[in-house]
Specification:
Rossmann fold; 8 helices; 7-stranded mixed β-sheet
Length: 238
């Protein structure tokens, strides 16, 4: 792992190692299939991508599905948990030759590749502060291809009564639980959309599930893609 990238108030790195083998079952017991559906919402749209950077994929379900649907893509998988990376390679099976794993904290890591045309962060940015995301985006901006896509899946708090009465307390509860289980010190969702917009990314597609509690989005620095997309929201309100 490389030296600290200069964040003066970097949060502690959570330890997900002991959750690696039970991560799937924890998800199914709490949210059923919905988090997985959110991760996979756009996976079939990445057939033209060849060089992917996947940050914090947990037990590797998105990586495995991406490798299955795209036989030409190469993946750099970065995760601070070696146990999660082991699960990722196990799920990738015979396709794991197209995966390079990097047990490292993405906030401090000197990414090995350049011209990434796909970045994937599924339920990862919520483990960072807004300032940490801003630093991460600045460093990745020079390593992406002009047509690159960034797919994000995250929890959200809709600006309505459901958000106030259900989503906000639920998200707060999840943060407290993962604080106990992993040492995660973050206690609130970061404002990653503002950072993306400030960094020149534009939203291409968005799908909302569970009344807006979870969302999957595609962002790009290619403004032509946004102009060609007739429905920027593309919402599936389930």
């Amino acid at each position: 792992m490389n030296a600290n990238i200069g964040l003066t108030n970097q949060s502690a790195t959570p330890d997900f190692n002991r959750l690696a083998r039970m991560y799937l079952w924890m998800e199914l017991l709490t949210f059923g299939p919905w988090l997985e559906r959110c991760r996979f919402a756009f996976v079939s749209d990445f057939g033209a991508c060849r060089n992917a950077l996947i940050l914090g994929d947990g037990d590797g379900r998105f990586t495995a599905r991406l490798l299955k649907t795209n036989p030409f893509i190469h993946v750099d998988a970065v995760d601070a948990s070696p146990a999660m990376l082991f699960e990722l390679l196990r799920r990738a099976g015979t396709e794991n030759a197209r995966v390079d794993i990097h047990p490292a904290d993405a906030r401090n890591f000197n990414f090995p590749g350049s011209q990434y045309d796909l970045i994937a962060t599924h339920f990862f940015l919520d483990c960072l502060t807004t300032d940490e995301i801003a630093s991460l985006v600045r460093r990745l901006r020079s390593r992406i291809a002009p047509e690159a896509l960034w797919v994000v899946s995250e929890f959200a708090v809709p600006p309505n009564s459901f958000g106030r009465l259900v989503a906000r307390p639920l998200v707060g509860c999840l943060y407290r639980i993962f604080g106990v289980l992993t040492g995660l010190t973050i206690r609130g969702l970061p404002d990653y959309p503002a950072i993306f917009l400030q960094s020149g990314f534009v939203p291409i597609l968005k799908r909302s599930m569970l009344a807006g509690l979870i969302v999957s989005e595609i962002w790009s620095v290619n403004t032509c893609l946004a102009k060609q997309t007739s429905n920027l929201d593309g919402n599936l309100l389930l």
